[in-house]
Amino acid sequence: GGGGGEDPAGKPSCLTWSYKFNTLIWAILIVVTSVLLKKVGQLLRLWVMGSCLPGPGLQALVARSVIRAKADGPLKLLELFSSLHKQHGSVLKIWMGPTQLLVSIFDVRIVNELLEKAHDRVPAPRMALQLAFGKGSLFFAPFSKVEGRRTIYDREFNGKNLGQVHAIALKVIQKLGLWATLDQDGNWHTDSKSFSQSIAFAVLGISIFGEGYVEWAAAREFEKLLISIADEISGWVRYTVPPVWRPSFIHFWRKCNRLKHLTWNLVAEAHKNLQTAVCPIDNTKDNMVRSDDATPETQSEGVTLNGKDNYKVEVFEIVETLKSNLVTGKILGDGRVSGMMYHGGCTTAGILSGILTRLAHHPDIQAKVYAEIKEVCGSNLAPSQSDVKQLHYLMASLHESARLLPTAPFLQRCSLQSDFQLAPGLIVPAGAIMAAPVHLLHLNPVCWGNDSADFNPERFLKPKSEFCLNVKANSSHIHNELDQTQKDTNMSEKRVFQAPPLDSGFLLFGTGARSCIGANFALTEILSLVAALVQGYELKLAPGSPKDLTPKLENCVLQYSPSARLILIPRRTQI
Ligand code: HEM
Predict the structure, then answer these.
(1) Predicted ipTM of the assembly
(2) Strands across the sheet with 181-182, in order?
């Protein structure tokens, strides 16, 4: 609209300007309206398709009970999901809000299919993990963006780093004075949760930043910040942070900034150490065994728990670790390293703390673990990496402990672009969250029997003949690498560890294209740590330590809370 014409000189008049302005406004309006219409269309689709799925309707406000149950702890959440599934069947929809649909699946076959076929997770809200760990955060990016990086990390964590983790774990355990307090009787006192956190961060920190990591003061602040950020991000299925309008948001934002600076400091320190560590190796090159010849087994052989180790050349090991550590190898960028430390540290700590607590609570089972260690590697020499592969009973105990206390109560997937066919006739609209209730699946009596709530490592042990038959059906983590050779004929009567088959619903590390790439690394680490600890010390509950094993979601992983207080009593056979 609007009137006017050209001026006598033929220059554009204000009419032309207003015409252009109007066109721009219309263009903007059309774009905004079409975006809004698309959103409304998506929402209507979500409502219509969501209403076809089994479960309570949008008006039922089940979300409130879910949020309340979540606040009351994982056991309440378990109860709620269990009763909802009983009521509505194995596939259940829950409206978490008018625009957020959660579909929980309590059917092992459908869960496995989901994890195999759906490769995306619901992206983290802009302000959540991105703020803390940068845009590169692997965990919540769509699969297309992380596929390449997954391959690289997989190669690193399951290659060189996996070869070194056993030796690093033994080194860390030797520095017990850093993680526990010595009393007058020569016993060590510690708290299971903080002990496990410090150790898990130390092992991962050395693998990523290099040998010096445990000595750096900045590393301790870094770990504390990671844990405190993990506490603030309330995570299960979907991660959230304090909303921007709350004062706590500014606090959170400051912490994230500090974390970034500390990460840069640690990376710089790792680079500096690499430079200084390289010098001695050049000077003494001729006197040393070549790194390529030193297998992890030969490096760790002969380490004793009393601190005297006979590694061939100390400096070699330092440089070897540094050379291949992920930061100096420029494989993990600064932004991603904190995300990896956060996930790897908190999860490993949760599982480690779980098994230590269980062993202290079940002296009979600890005695069997100790007997096995003594049988395989004696009392004085620390277990070598190949020894650890023969600790079937310990492996079974670790899996049993993690079955009862997995790190994540839920795994989530979503299909970002298109609808997802869950099962014949069950279509989940694009953008809805699909969740596998791991904690519930791990306690499912149909798969684990009526004693599914009991701690019984035997359920992961099978006669060797059965193992051979079933091995192909099992998932592909470290489990199947357990050494099946026998040291003597007596061992043939022994039962061997059998990895939980896929149809058992055991999902500690997830499965499919987004499964955990650190599974082998974490399992080797935890086995080595527990083997070395139990070989050297008897784990006991301190007087007054909580008797109940109540799981809670702390630092974003399931943990027994309050945490057990442990006493580590040196075994008499130890010199
Ligand atoms: C006992 C310790 C650990 C547990 C229980 C654990 C568990 C998990 C779980 C449940 C997932 C999600 C799987 C899925 O959605 O299917 C995951 C993903 C992942 N984990 Fe772990 N993890 C542990 C240790 C580690 C360590 C030590 C590292 C690295 C060094 C690591 C690296 C990763 C990565 C990179 C992913 C994300 C993969 C992706 O999004 O594509 N994890 N982990």
Answers:
(1) 0.98
(2) 181-182, 188-191, 565-570, 537-541
Q: In 3-state terms, what secondary structure has residue 506?
A: coil
Distance (Å, rounded) from C-alpha 495 to C-alpha 467?
Answer: 9
What are the structure tokens assigned to 153, written together?
């990390």
- For ligand 1, atom 1, name the residue with the nearest CA: 348
Ramachandran region, residue 147 (left: φ > 0; alpha: ψ -120 to 50; beta: rest): alpha
Please state at what angle helix 334-361 crosses helix 192-209, rounded to 10 degrees: 140
Put simply, whether the predicted model's pTM sits higher than 0.80 gets the answer: yes
pLDDT digits over 390-402, tens only?
999 999 999 999 9
Tell me the torsion sign for CA atoms 322, 328, 330, 333.
positive
Residue 208 · residue 340 · CB < 8 Å: yes
In 362-420, where does DSSP find H-type helix? 363-377, 385-388, 392-404
CA R_g for the chain: 27
Domains of the chain: 160-182+200-403+454-570 (1.10.630.10)
Question: What pLDDT is stored for residue 51 in this prediction?
Answer: 87
Can you tell me the distance from the alpha carbon of 535 to that of 384, in angstroms, rounded to the nearest whole number?
12
Asked if 397 and 457 count as a contact pair (C-beta separation under 8 A), the reply is yes
**Residues in contact with ligand 1 (CB, 6 Å cut-off):** 115, 138-139, 146, 150, 153, 157, 204, 340, 343-344, 347-348, 351, 407-408, 411, 508-512, 514-518, 521-522
The string of pLDDT tens digits covering residues 119-161 is 988 876 666 667 777 765 677 778 888 888 888 888 878 877 7
